[in-house]
Amino acid sequence: MYCYRVRGPYATALAKIILDAGFELVDVSKKIAERLGIEEKANAIPHATVKESDEDPNTLIVIGYREAVDALLSELNSRIPFTVTVYEELGPYTTVAVKVVGYDRLGRCVGKVSEDREVVIQNIRECVEGAVVVAHIVKPSQRLGNGRAITLPGIAVLKDTLVLLDDREGKVFFSEHIRDYERKSLLNSLASQVVRQGLSIRWRSTAKSAPLEIIAKDLEAAVEDVKKLRDISVTEPGVVLSGEAIAFLTLTRASKEYLDVVRDAVVPTTPHHHVFRTCRKRFDVCIDLLDYLASKIPRDLLGEEIKEFIAQSITSKEVVLRHENPGRGFSEIGPMKILKALNTELGLALVGRRIIQRNGTYDGLGVEKKAGDIALSLIPVDDWFIAHLYFDQSGLEKGMYININTPPEICPASNTIRYLDLLVDIAIVKNNVRIVDLEQLEEARRKGLLEEDLVYIASETIKKVLAFVEVIRRALREPQFLEQ
């Protein structure tokens, strides 16, 4: 049975999912151990860890031994709805043979691990085109397509408590979680024998409490592995030795709402708990209060009141739409002023207004874009689309572009509205209606980037929106919105 460690704002919900799936939890925080009635097992070594990404609190990272990552990833994907998964085979400390291509436009040395996978090689002495060098992954790519992992020269050997690097540097690194001075001193003593050989050692967080005899065995085995790998002649690019596997799960608002329900089965949890937790840290006290109220007030009623409060609190503010493209980063739309929260036939929605700043062509519409044009946006609070209606300065409609996306996460504290783009859109110019980029949606489904639930709801949303085009247009064509 695999055992896992959980960390971060999703920890309670993830811990319950892991236990319900029949796996084991180790190195558990005292709070979660008390909530779930389990042992902390602080000295046990996990097969993998699941936590929030340091770079994006909306993304979960599952990292560890490949089989353990695969097993947990399968469970998470089957239980948490509406996620986007990027699985990176070239995980941390994977040793690869890289065929050097040369310098890219940023002056970085770039090489190929396979025909379609490039990596950046940092700190290389000579970037000679055609040379095959051995390097290890230090930062995996989180992006599809042209995303490049970052590597450093030398072999990396991964063990439970350490990573041994054949980099000729002879340095010792500690996980940020190893803080005890006495433990650091003991680990330094163990490392001294290999540092003199020009090997570097990176002590993993598990070394903070693992028995010293286990750590010593890991170190001995790693040294033997390095010696064997040094004797291998590498002439072609490819993977030399597997390191950790890593997967990135991007959560949507619907995903977080599911995790709210899971957490509520363990401890009273307010609707929107995980959206708020990843919105701004200063919300923490307010979230604790709402969690308390969730045990006193029906969740449905509390959820509706919170939603109304959020909509009203962001009205009159300037916001930015954070438009996230599955597996390819994000772009920002705005600033946009939220004019009003109104009730429509589609439910509660925000109306936003922005002035176009540059000349060009409206993507998808094929209509001329001029500086000074007015864009009015309808942002349904609970629906799977955002509509943008474009006008010239005289108020003549130019066209409507409807983006199909996950329900918005509205964060008044940072004045942002986040959603995940579902790749397909609707373009309307006069009476001409077109479905745009349907092939991209199908390709994402075929590649496994978008799960079937997201593909299905995108298709159903298109049908729904087409039946409500005039409702959307009427909501946005109120004179007060154009005349601001």
UniProtKB/TrEMBL annotation:
SUPFAM superfamilies: FomD-like. It comes from the Archaea. GO terms for molecular function: hydrolase activity. It holds the Pfam family DUF402. Keywords: Hydrolase. Residues 349-469 form the DUF402 domain. PANTHER family: PTHR39159, UPF0374 PROTEIN YGAC. This is DUF402 domain-containing protein. It comes from Ignisphaera aggregans. The lineage of its organism: Archaea, Thermoproteota, Thermoprotei, Desulfurococcales, Desulfurococcaceae.
